[in-house]
From TrEMBL:
It comes from Sedimentibacter saalensis. GO terms for molecular function: metal ion binding. The keyword Cell membrane does not apply. Pfam families: Cupin_2. SUPFAM superfamilies: RmlC-like cupins (SSF51182). Keywords: Metal-binding. Residues 42-110 form the Cupin type-2 domain. This is Putative cupin superfamily protein. The keyword Glycoprotein does not apply. Transmembrane segments: none annotated.
């Protein structure tokens, strides 16, 4: 075990996108296994993630600095420094943060690392399923509720 500093993380624990969103994976850098701890730096007029929900993962968010909008199950809430929210597991709570302010929106994001989880992206009707270290992506319209694994079932 060693003491690390958020400003001196090795590059392998930093993720950046094309608009300037940065995620620092503190938990992974420290060797955490059952939870993740990230700090997200969301630039003005950008989103923290695509709008999504989880089937298994529990999450906790706290605004460290800046202000923005939390989209949560179709409603929007203004958030600012010091605000926090927990998202219980398996509640199908869709969420994302949007930086509607003029400075970086900094969010601490803590959650459970789940080997099995399905993310649903309602704006795009897409699913991302992770299981057995594999990821599968499929459209909601492709789901067939009439299919069954029963060998003698006929349609």
């Amino acid at each position: 075990m060693e003491i690390l500093n958020v400003e001196q993380l090795p590059e392998e624990f930093l993720w950046k996108d094309s608009v300037g969103l940065i995620t620092k994976s503190l938990g992974a850098a420290a060797g955490s296994q059952k939870i993740y701890v990230n700090i997200d730096y969301v630039p003005p007029k950008a989103y923290s993630t695509k709008y999504h929900s989880h089937s298994q993962q529990e999450e906790f968010f706290m605004i460290l600095s800046g202000s923005g909008t939390l989209r949560l199950n179709g409603q929007e809430w203004l958030v600012k420094q010091g605000d926090f929210i927990a998202k219980p597991a398996a509640q199908e709570i869709a969420h994302t943060f949007y930086n509607s302010g003029n400075e970086s929106l900094v969010i601490i994001d803590v959650g459970t690392n789940e080997k099995e989880d399905t993310c649903y992206y309602p704006d795009e009707d897409m699913y991302l399923q992770k299981s057995n270290d594999q990821r599968r992506i499929f459209r909601g319209k492709d789901l067939d509720s009439s299919w069954t694994s029963e060998p003698n079932h006929t349609k």
